[in-house]
């Protein structure tokens, strides 16, 4: 198949991972394109009035990977790097993630090529609403359900929901997830991904016989996922010795003050300026000695250049696609030195609780936070056990095991449904 519109390093990485697992599963060549390539890709122009009176057009995208199991599901990213290839790769990974967790979804992803921090609040609202307006013919509660991602948040989801609802003439809470609780969101959604990461790290520490009390962790990316994972791990007794975001990185073997970090980021919106004593080069932070390393920012940060230098015992992938195939090959040669919690398992807490939000919105019956987290941890435990059991049985990596389970589910559903017409 001609895949030229999905060009780019991130999609090539997703494709390379798929081919590797497809070879392992012995999937016939004639079935592979239907499994890998997205069902639908949408590109839209989003013009808005800037505050200075100019009209500016931003490019927006949405990729729906497959609708075999139910509606598609996935975040919406506002970032300067967004392109159709990156969005498509994220949609593919979301498909395997949802299937691994047993959710009735296909994967989707969307985004706008923009620096959201360069927009005023009014401009951000205008762009958010225009993007959703352009998407209305292609999305719906049983077609494609949006969620937040890098550069978007609860407020953007509320604008999405309101825009869609105005065109429908009724409130449609279930069109997006990750909304404020006051707009039909669920308790626990904001913390879900980070707490899910911490839960799985805790399970691996138990398996490896490492005491949580006194273990050390480094978190790359101190946004929603990374910061909440850091707090949740600290609650378990771990010492956070390194953090970073796109502005600065800090490392202190004695432990960093999370409360002070939170106060600083709440006031300034970033880590820069927090401290001059514990500054470290961002690339150096990843290779410091620690028990747990959590890349929780962007794709492709664990590479062929630094994978051999990692000094962690557990690599917990809070971000999507942080480890390249070249790095995976190096980690494989290191044997049992590093226990990898692959992204489609490790960060699946967000989409699991998004699913809970969608279910609650559809039935207009909402759960207490304790019920949300109890259900979350049960699904994570099931996915974790399935992954490590398959990895051990087939003598393959945790990443290959998790992806193989996801692909098996999607392939089985496509085979059962057949090909229409």
From TrEMBL:
Coiled coil: none annotated. It comes from the Bacteria. The keyword Oxidoreductase applies. InterPro entries: Aminoacid_DH-like_N_sf, Glu/Leu/Phe/Val/Trp_DH, Glu/Leu/Phe/Val/Trp_DH_C, Glu/Leu/Phe/Val/Trp_DH_dimer, Glu/Leu/Phe/Val_DH_AS, Glu_DH, NAD(P)-bd_dom_sf, NAD_bind_Glu_DH. The keyword Thylakoid does not apply. Residues 186-418 form the Glutamate/phenylalanine/leucine/valine/L-tryptophan dehydrogenase C-terminal domain. Keywords: Oxidoreductase. Pfam families: ELFV_dehydrog, ELFV_dehydrog_N. Belongs to the Glu/Leu/Phe/Val dehydrogenases family. This is Glutamate dehydrogenase. The lineage of its organism: Bacteria, Pseudomonadati, Pseudomonadota, Alphaproteobacteria, Hyphomicrobiales.
């Amino acid at each position: 198949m001609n895949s030229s519109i999905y060009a780019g390093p991130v999609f090539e990485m997703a494709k390379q991972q798929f081919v590797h697992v497809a070879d392992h599963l012995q999937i016939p060549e004639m079935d592979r394109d239907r499994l890998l390539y997205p069902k639908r890709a949408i590109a839209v122009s989003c013009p808005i009035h800037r505050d200075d009176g100019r009209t500016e057009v931003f490019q927006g995208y949405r990729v729906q990977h497959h609708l075999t199991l139910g509606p598609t599901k996935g975040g919406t990213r506002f970032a300067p790097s967004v392109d159709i290839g990156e969005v498509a790769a994220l949609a593919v990974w979301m498909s395997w993630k949802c299937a691994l967790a047993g959710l009735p979804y296909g994967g989707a992803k969307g985004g706008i090529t923009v620096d959201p921090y360069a927009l005023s609040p009014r401009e951000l609202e205008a762009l958010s609403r225009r993007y959703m307006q352009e998407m209305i013919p292609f999305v719906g509660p049983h077609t494609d359900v949006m969620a937040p991602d890098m550069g978007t948040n609860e407020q953007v989801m509320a604008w999405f929901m309101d825009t869609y609802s105005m065109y429908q003439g009724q409130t449609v809470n279930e069109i997006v997830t990750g909304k404020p609780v006051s707009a039909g969101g669920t308790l626990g959604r904001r913390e879900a991904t980070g707490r899910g990461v911490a839960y799985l790290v805790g399970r691996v520490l138990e398996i490896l016989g490492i005491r949580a009390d006194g273990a050390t962790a480094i978190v790359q990316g101190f946004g929603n996922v990374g910061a909440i994972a850091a707090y949740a791990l600290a609650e378990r007794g771990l010492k956070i010795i390194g953090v970073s975001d796109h502005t600065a990185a800090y490392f202190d073997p004695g432990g960093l003050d999370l409360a002070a970090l939170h106060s600083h980021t709440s006031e300034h919106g970033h880590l820069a300026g927090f401290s001059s004593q514990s500054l470290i080069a961002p690339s150096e932070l990843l290779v410091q000695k620690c028990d747990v390393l959590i890349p929780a920012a962007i794709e492709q940060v664990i590479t062929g250049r630094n994978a051999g230098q990692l000094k962690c015992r557990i690599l917990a992938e809070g971000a999507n696609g942080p480890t390249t195939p070249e790095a995976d090959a190096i980690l494989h040669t290191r044997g049992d030195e590093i226990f990898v919690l692959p992204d489609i398992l490790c960060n699946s807490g967000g989409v699991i609780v998004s699913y809970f939000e969608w279910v609650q919105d559809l039935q207009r019956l909402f759960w207490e936070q304790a019920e949300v987290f109890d259900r979350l941890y049960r699904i994570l435990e099931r996915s974790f056990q399935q992954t490590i059991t398959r990895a051990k049985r087939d003598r393959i990596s945790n990443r290959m095991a998790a992806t193989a389970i996801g692909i098996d589910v999607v392939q089985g559903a496509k085979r059962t449904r057949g090909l229409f017409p």
